[in-house]
Specification:
The protein has 618 residues and is an alpha+beta fold. The chain folds into three domains: 191 residues, Histidine kinase-like ATPase, C-terminal domain (Heat Shock Protein 90, 2-Layer Sandwich); 121 residues, 2-Layer Sandwich (Ribosomal Protein S5, domain 2), CATH 3.30.230.10; 194 residues, MutL, C-terminal domain, regulatory subdomain (Ribosomal Protein S8, Chain: A, domain 1, 2-Layer Sandwich). It contains 17 helices and 22 strands. The chain has an eight-stranded mixed beta sheet with strand order 5-4-3-6-2-1-7-8. It has a five-stranded mixed beta sheet with strand order 9-10-13-11-12. The chain has a four-stranded antiparallel beta sheet with strand order 16-17-18-22. Strand 3 and strand 4 form a beta hairpin. The longest helix has 19 residues. About 13% of the residues have low confidence.
């Protein structure tokens, strides 16, 4: 039998490694910017074209490389950070595996220009698909300039699975956010197709956070600072009232490295327990500084997952730090132990002359056992008795409260409905006006012939708005209600990019939103089918809903926007409704084509059969 085991060629091995390290254009940006930071750069410029498909150019003013180092950097496992196995557990730099450049060069065309500060000439290297095309001296600026062109040109299957340009650009922006937040002292700029997304000057952490997420977040930040022998924790947490329902402003950093850590996230959520709105997530920017020997960063190719030696202890310190910060700013109620358990007795009034004591009138002749004329004798074996006139009146009043609750009689038999068709219900006007009630400010209860119908008010409103918006799209009846005073608002770069990508769909629905420059927008008009006094909140809620939409923007863009807009604009659970509003909601729901399910397929209503009530009372 011939031998079947053989060594892979370097080019194939590099492509396999690229599958782990380089997943998308954002991965290239992350690896090269981190290399620039390790090279001591104080200024880094990132220039992107077509969300990184065509060009990723990264320029820094770091130490640069010699001609030998420039060539060696593209070899697998070539690194300047590790000389022995023990060095792995003392890493304070970003990259150290030595796989990034080799992986990038295997799936793209790479041009490198680099020069050390004390040299007159630099080095130019051109590599395509792991093949060296050229290496020669060149006149260039000190530092390093990488140009990555035609990413995945020789791996068409990988290129085919890239998302749309807005989606890929969003991933790049997220990577720049993480690096910029971890290294606030470094100036970082990001340009896409010639337009500036970020131009961040070196600053402190708070200024950097505000520069990325907008000036409105400044008043939301609460500083946190704790130092122990195990770990130093610093950064900022957000006020509960500004918490959002989606992720986006939650960051952990260990020794200036961004990490994901669900266990630590749970510590923060428990610290906010009972002071957060339902389903809300607070903002936090937490920086851990600790001995590299106490952590292991080598458990994942992207190094975003880190193992802590004393994880539980760090968890407890983190939770205590967050609670302390909230307490200092009077966010959580404090306990005065000197007054705990004492009774607060009010001081007596000095002048009692004007105080009127309430009078209690008592009928001394009243006998509760005295029989009235309307009662039968209660003696011997005759134990029956009739209600008094007062009792009769109360009973009549009690019955009047439920007058009209009985479902109206239907004439004829109800036609059978196929199982795959939405069930239609006949709701009488008298019934909706008098019989329907709101329960817990979340559900609407209304009797039907077969029992009791329960309607989720938010999902019902979502269905109504969605079908109205879709009708506007289908009939091309764009009705925009112009704002008397146009509103301007600012978004972070990631949300601004997302909003820009869906502006055509928003205009098709009746939104008149224009780009105002510098991640700012102006609202001149809103859809006529929406009645809102805060269009900015609607836009922000729309973006939050749209981020988690499972539908690709390119496939059903307007339907997706309509779905997200309906969900963002609908009445919330917990909102009290007037009887007329309840009646109108029910009428509009059953005028919909699909009243049974929300736009995202969740049940809107359910009927509890009369038999189930009878079983409960047995």
């Amino acid at each position: 039998m011939p031998d079947i085991i053989q060594l892979l060629p370097d080019s194939v091995a590099n492509q396999i490694a690229a599958g782990e390290v380089i997943q998308r254009p954002a991965s290239v940006v992350k690896e090269l910017v981190e290399n620039a930071i390790d090279a001591g750069a104080t200024q880094i410029k990132v220039n992107i074209k077509d969300a990184g498909r065509t060009l990723i150019q990264i320029t820094d003013n770091g130490c640069g490389m010699s001609d030998t180092d420039a060539r060696m950097a593209f070899e697998r496992h070539a690194t300047s950070k590790i000389k022995s196995a023990s060095d792995i557990f003392a890493i304070r730099t970003m990259g150290f595996r030595g796989e990034a450049l080799a992986s990038i060069a295997a799936i793209a065309e790479v041009e490198l220009r680099t020069k050390e500060h004390d040299q007159d000439l630099g080095t130019f290297i051109h590599i395509s698909g792991s093949n060296i095309i050229a290496q020669e001296p060149v006149s260039c600026d000190s530092g390093t300039n990488f140009q990555i062109k035609n990413l995945f040109f020789n791996v068409p299957a990988r290129r085919k699975f890239l998302k749309s340009n807005p989606a890929e650009l969003k991933h790049i922006i997220n990577e720049i956010q993480r690096i910029a937040l971890a290294n606030s002292e470094i100036s970082i700029s990001l340009y896409h197709n010639g337009s500036a997304i970020y131009e961040l000057n070196g600053s402190n952490k708070r200024v950097r956070i505000v520069s990325i997420f907008g000036k409105n977040i400044n008043q939301n930040l609460i500083p946190i600072e704790t130092e122990t022998s195990l770990v130093k924790i610093s950064g900022f947490i957000g006020q509960p009232k500004h918490a959002r329902k989606m992720f986006g402003e939650q960051f952990f950093f260990v020794n200036q490295r961004y990490i994901k850590h669900p266990y630590f996230h749970r510590a923060i959520m428990q610290a906010y327990e009972k002071i957060l709105p339902p389903d809300a997530i607070p903002s936090y920017f937490i920086y851990f500084d600790m001995n590299p020997a106490d952590i292991d960063v080598n458990i994942h190719p992207t190094k975003t997952e880190i193992k802590f030696e004393n994880e539980q202890a760090v968890w407890q310190i983190l939770q205590a730090s967050v609670r302390e910060a909230l307490g200092k700013f009077n966010i959580v109620p404090s306990i005065d132990f000197d007054q705990a358990g004492s009774v607060d007795i009010p001081m007596p009034l000095r002048d009692y002359s004007d105080v009127q004591t309430p009078e209690i009138k008592v009928n001394p002749a009243y006998n509760p056992f005295e029989q009235t004329a309307s009662t039968k004798n209660y003696s011997g074996t005759d134990r029956s008795f009739a209600p008094t006139p007062t009792q009769r009146t109360n009973l009549s009043s009690w019955q009047s409260l439920y007058k009209g609750l009985e479902p109206p009689e239907y004439s004829g038999s109800q036609p059978e409905t196929p199982a795959d068709e939405p069930v239609q219900f006949r709701i009488e006007e008298q019934q909706t006006a008098k019989s329907s009630v709101q329960f817990k400010n979340k559900y609407i209860l209304t009797p039907v012939k077969s029992g009791l119908m329960v309607i989720d008010q938010k999902r019902a409103h979502e269905r109504i708005l969605y079908e109205r918006l879709m009708q506007v799209i289908e009939n091309h009846e764009v009705a925009s209600q112009q704002q008397l005073f146009p509103e301007t608002f600012e978004l972070n770069a990631s949300d601004a990019t997302l909003l820009t990508s869906i502006l055509p769909e928003l205009r098709a629905l009746g939104f008149d939103v224009r780009d105002f420059g510098k991640n700012s927008f102006i609202i001149n008009g809103t859809p006529g089918v929406l009645h809102t006094s805060s269009p900015v909140e609607i836009i922000e809620s729309l973006l939050e809903e749209f981020k988690n939409s499972p539908v690709n923007l390119q496939e059903k863009a307007r339907e997706t926007v309509a779905m997200s807009l309906a969900q963002a604009s609908s009445i919330q659970s917990g909102q009290a409704l007037k009887p007329a509003e309840i009646s109108e909601l029910i009428d509009n729901l059953f005028a919909c084509k699909t009243p049974n399910f929300s736009p995202k397929g969740k049940k809107i209503l359910s009927i509890m059969p009369l038999e189930d009530f009878e079983k409960l009372l047995k």
